[in-house]
Cyclic di-GMP-binding protein (Frateuria aurantia), 752 residues
Amino acid sequence: MRRLAWCLSLGLVGTMAIADRCAIADEVVPESTPAAPGQLGITSRHSFQQLGVDYQMTMHGPEAELGVPFGVRVDQLPLDGSIQLAYQVADHVPHGHTELLVRLNGVSVDRIELHAADAGKRFNRHIVLDAKALIDFNHLEFVLHSDAGDLCVPGKPAAWIVRIDNGSSVELRSRTLGLSNDLSHWPLPFFDRRDIDSLRLTMVLGQHPGLPTLQAAGLLASWFGALASYRGVDVQASADTLPSHGNAIALITSEHPINGISTPAITGPQVEMENLPGDDGHKLLLVMGRDDAELRTAVLGLLQGTSMQGDQVHFPAMSEPAPRQPYDAPGWLSTRGPVTLGELGGSTRFTVQGPIPDTVSLQFMLPPDLFTTGAQDVPLHLHYRATAAPIGSGWGAQVNLNHAGVDGWKLDEATDPTSMFARWHALPDEDQMLVGQRTIRLPLSALSARNQLQVHFSFGAQPGCISRASRNAMATVDPGSTLDISHLQHYLVMPDLAAFANSGFPFSRYADLEQTTLVLPGNRDEQDNRMLLNLLAMLGSRTGYPAYRVHLSEAADAAAHAGDDLIVLGRAGTQPLLSRWSTDLPANTDPAGWRDRVKRWLIIHVPGPLLHLRRPDLQSTAQAVFDARQYDVMVQGFRSPLDHRRSVIAIQYDGARASTAFYEAMQRRDELAHFQGSVATVQGDRVRSYAGLQSYTIGHLSWMTRLQLSLSARPWLLVAVAFCGIWLSAWLGRGWLRRRAAWRLKREYLDD
């Protein structure tokens, strides 16, 4: 009967998964019919680490559980799948029958018995998955089962039994479904939230697209960047040429048609979905308007995406979204007041249960210009419920920030009448859940631009110690718990390429890039267009919001945007601003100003002065020689020559691989961490950063904090101030003593 139930469950799940996919499919290629290239036998392989498990999966005690989520694109039909499982058995296996159960969506797919003879050995196991059991969002579970009974030994921690390598992988072979041309599925097939891979997006533009067309394309690219988030977007910009395969988006106006595309009569802002010519397995989306204004309206209609049906949609006049306020990017923690964990968590599971429960994990980003020196820690007001802990059970909770422990406490402290947990009260239900609250101070030194907050509950006296009382234990973190960073000031020493690479700052201060201008070469090619679109997609992923109000300009008109923060794109031969502002560039090895010459000489020859310009982790630009032709990309940050209150990022590139190198450097976590200081060079997969001679600040601090900060960065100034203070005190004291002595002598004379 149990086997029959499993079979029925597999059949039901598989039928639902196929039905969901076929509901949006125009046609599915029969297995007996040869498929077009790319339609049959698409193989994908993802390690557990790529699927979000960034730690070694260690299993303690009986009934330990671990899970790995993965998705299947809705336009792909799985044919078969497998797991390449790498695991290690501990030196000591519990007595009795011990086994590792592998489940897919609650259905058992393998059972691995662990024997005493396996102790200390490493194994690789190939596990076949039934394609019928695969659905859109899948959950792979590993359950350790042992009949050894209660493994709790007082004073002795339970050892781990199995350790699963996060290099283990899930491999799927699938077939592409021929989707219908119905726009109600938008943004399919271009983006599918079930897909964890980076989004590859091809945008087809005219031979020489103008700035308004590029602005519409950039808005669409930034929207995809916000959707893709951590996945990243690699935009291919094609000039007047359709790709031979893959999905593509073409932006067309009556004035600038594209060769090879037969468009319907353009009567206004409209979009149309059709099969890619020569490749019926992929789609071509036509975004059209009679002029640039209507083309932008069509893009705005796509971004709103409401009430689209059929293969062709005409849009009425579309209104622009309201302007954003500073520091209100959807992907950032708000600085306006307390933020609930529910706002950060999205689909996070706030309830955990079992003897070894999962971790409640939350991701959040911070504005990179928060001034943390001397400020108070960030308060986390945590509210939670947990199964009433038996007296002396040792049940506890721990809060980690970026994998470092911040606070921990025992759940049975309610037995202490002086503890704050004495305020707990039993809920009026049979589970006897107790309510607790705790204020936790998150250290500012542990916070970064990207953060992970974890709450662990432990229902055992020791790690992995499982008692019968803990088998039904559960805990819930209240989504109404709050984080508050509203007390922190905004202040940052610039240039800071780490802030730009990780958060898009200072341009992302306004999520819609209202005060940002991108300065492009006048004579542009595909490489320039691709760099522009990839940059805007990157900024969209950092803010979680499209670039509705970004400005595009050419070098001749840059002065008209002096009040904006600028991003200058181009090669040395095509971007005039790179030569016009050469003396302002931090990579300039021949500074024109006498101050820069003195600073350069002091940094090279004298170890003591200018400590505030020295970074022990970075080489100074004064000690390096730069040739932009040696790098794929060079990124430089400096104060705007047009307005000293504004910042400039200059991205200079050369070679056919420049845009790919820039995208990969901005996407890979290990390379992203190397963007620092004022100058960063990208060559292949290597990023090197340098500290410049110039620095400036943005933001506001109180005068006292500014004075303290200035003195701490310049010890010689502190000594000078102290000396002047001592001299002034001595001079005033001397004058007071002389006047006192004169008064006393005069009084004695009068007395005589």
User: Anything to note?
Assistant: Confidence is low (pLDDT under 50) at residues 1-19, 26-39, 414-430. The CA atoms of residues 48 and 166 lie 5 Å apart.
